[in-house]
Design a protein that fits this description.
14 helices, Glycerol-3-phosphate (1)-acyltransferase, single chain, alpha/beta, seven-stranded mixed β-sheet, 313 residues
């Protein structure tokens, strides 16, 4: 080949391709949301880097700021195989505190179901969520086939899953209805659900801060694990989701009062709902337990169980 021919060939290979007039260039599909691929975040090298960041940076910082106390982890520590951890959700601190509550071996083999429309709406945010938390995108409005299949496949591979059945952080301190994602996955994969109640995280970092206070205020938190719940053949995902919510409500009652009183109320089917009393907004705000937001409790109001506050109203 002559030198000029070689030069022409090189220019042809390096030149940007042309497009015929009138032909519109195809748009590349943006893979964000539930479409974002997270397989790379579970490769060994990435998992090792995430474990170092979690254990040496994230968890020490969160522990220093939130000072969590852990209760009832015995059943989880004895369990072999994957588990779905289902907890109430009031703060962005919740995920890190839940990861801190897990034994190291399980912690490093756990993925977090994160809202696809919030944590995976942009590429940089999706990559950060997948790396730092091992997050996978999950549709929070409804059970999405793609995200449900991905989560189920990971559970069947032996991964545990952290999920917040409310679908998002509470804007007012009271809980929200538990959606069926955790229950559906538990029934589909035949794995247990560990109900968990997180106390005090909203007082540290609420979703909607008050104008008169800073957004972040260190404090104390508590993480309570309930007995493992197994789905029965008779109940569908909706009924199982209601049972999970009731188990978290029992733990919330215990957190605001004591174990014995909470069990007595549960025996009488009088456990207060996580969603708060069905009264006017100002009374709901006034009835919030101190752990949800101490600044909303009137001076002189004694701390007690949520049920006591409602009964007196």
């Amino acid at each position: 080949m002559s030198r000029s021919a070689a030069r022409e060939l090189a220019l042809f290979l390096l030149r940007a391709p042309t497009r015929p007039a009138g032909v519109e260039a195809p748009r590349l599909k943006s893979r964000t949301g539930v479409e974002y691929p997270t397989e790379w975040a579970r490769r060994y090298a990435v998992r090792l880097a995430r474990a170092m960041v979690l254990d040496d940076v994230t968890l020490p910082l969160v522990t220093a700021a939130a000072r969590p106390a852990f209760y009832g982890r015995d059943a989880l520590e004895r369990l072999e195989g994957p588990v779905i951890v289902a907890a109430n959700h009031a703060s962005h601190l919740d995920t890190a505190i839940l990861l801190a509550s897990l034994p190291p071996k399980r912690r490093h083999h756990t993925v977090v179901a994160a809202a696809a429309d919030y944590f995976f709406d942009r590429h940089w945010k999706a990559a950060l969520s997948a790396f730092s938390l091992g997050a996978i995108p999950m549709e929070r409005v409804k059970v999405n086939r793609r995200s449900a299949d991905a989560a189920a496949a990971l559970i069947e591979e032996g991964w545990s899953l952290i999920i917040f059945p409310e679908g998002g952080r509470s804007p007012h301190g009271w809980g929200q209805e538990f959606k069926g994602g955790a229950a559906y996955l538990a029934k589909r994969c035949q794995v247990p659900v560990a109900p968990v109640h997180l106390r005090g995280t909203r007082a540290i970092l609420p979703k909607v801060p008050e104008p008169a206070r800073s957004r972040f205020r260190p404090g104390k938190t508590a993480v309570r694990f309930g007995e493992l719940l197994w789905p029965s053949e008779e109940e569908d995902a909706r009924r199982f989701a209601a049972r999970i919510e009731a188990a978290v409500a029992l733990l919330a009652d215990e957190a605001e009062g004591d174990w014995w009183t909470a069990r007595l109320r549960a025996g009488r089917a009088e456990t207060p709902s996580l969603r708060g009393p069905a009264v006017s907004p100002w009374r709901r705000a006034w009835s919030l337990p101190a752990s949800a937001d101490p600044s909303r409790r009137p001076s002189g109001r004694p701390e007690g169980s949520a049920a006591t506050a409602w009964d007196e109203g």
